[in-house]
From TrEMBL:
Organism encoding this protein: Sellimonas catena
Described purpose of this protein according to its UniProt entry: Forms part of the ribosomal stalk, playing a central role in the interaction of the ribosome with GTP-bound translation factors.
InterPro entries associated with the record: Ribosomal_uL10, Ribosomal_uL10-like_sf, Ribosomal_uL10_bac, Ribosomal_uL10_bac_type, Ribosomal_uL10_CS_bac
Chain segments carrying region Disordered: 163-182
GO biological processes: translation
SUPFAM superfamilies linked to this entry: Ribosomal protein L10-like
CC terms in the record's Gene Ontology section: large ribosomal subunit
Transcription recorded as keyword: no
Annotated protein name in UniProt: Large ribosomal subunit protein uL10
Presence of the UniProt keyword NAD in the record: no
One Pfam entry name: Ribosomal_L10
UniProt subunit comment: Part of the ribosomal stalk of the 50S ribosomal subunit. The N-terminus interacts with L11 and the large rRNA to form the base of the stalk. The C-terminus forms an elongated spine to which L12 dimers bind in a sequential fashion forming a multimeric L10(L12)X complex.
């Protein structure tokens, strides 16, 4: 069997991983301990993100003709790819957060929704909250006025209802009329 035939399934597996991917981040993993690598893989797996260490030539062949072809210039030295099909910013968020504790992990570059970013761009993208966080903030913003209205109505009810409020409004209106007469 020729070497090309042995490498073709590997290239195809990489191509399958990046097919329909929203983002791919390339990292340099040199210097990570086994414990750190295991922890990183665990965090990525929990987020539904694929992490693979592959040869650069294999990744270059898999990236040819795709949105990820712009990553070829960053494929030097040991490289691992982090792929997400669901959340476009998840790989950047997890990798950059993990890189704060594991200084050996270095972000090289990435492609998010068809745009190539260098390490600084990926770091900036990592600051974007996840989709779930953004939705919860939106929901909180929508619920806030309703919650405030409910609190006001509850306070009115605790103070004796609308009749007590009307009586309270009428009482101050009568007092100023009496004061100038004196």
């Amino acid at each position: 069997m020729a070497k090309v035939e042995l490498k073709q399934p590997i290239v195809q597996a990489i191509a399958d991983d990046i097919k329909d991917a929203q983002s791919v981040v390339i990292v340099d993993y040199r210097g990570l301990t086994v414990a750190q690598d295991t922890e990183l893989r665990k965090q990525l797996r929990e987020a539904g993100v694929i992490y693979k260490v592959c040869k650069n030539t294999m990744m270059k062949r898999a990236f040819e003709g795709t949105d990820f072809a712009g990553l070829e210039e960053y494929l030097e030295g040991p490289s691992a790819m982090v792929v997400s099909k669901d959340d476009a910013t998840a790989p950047a968020r997890i990798i950059c957060k993990f890189a704060k504790t594991a200084e050996a992990l270095e972000v090289k570059a990435g492609v998010v929704e068809g745009t190539v970013y260098d390490a600084a761009g990926i770091t900036e993208l990592s600051k974007i909250p996840s989709r779930e966080e953004l939705l919860s903030k939106l929901l909180g913003s929508l619920q806030s006025p309703i919650t405030n209205l409910a609190r006001v109505l509850n306070q009115i009810a605790e103070q004796g209802g609308a009749e007590a409020c009307e009586a309270a409004e009428e009482a101050p209106a009568e007092e100023p009329a009496e004061t100038p007469a004196e």
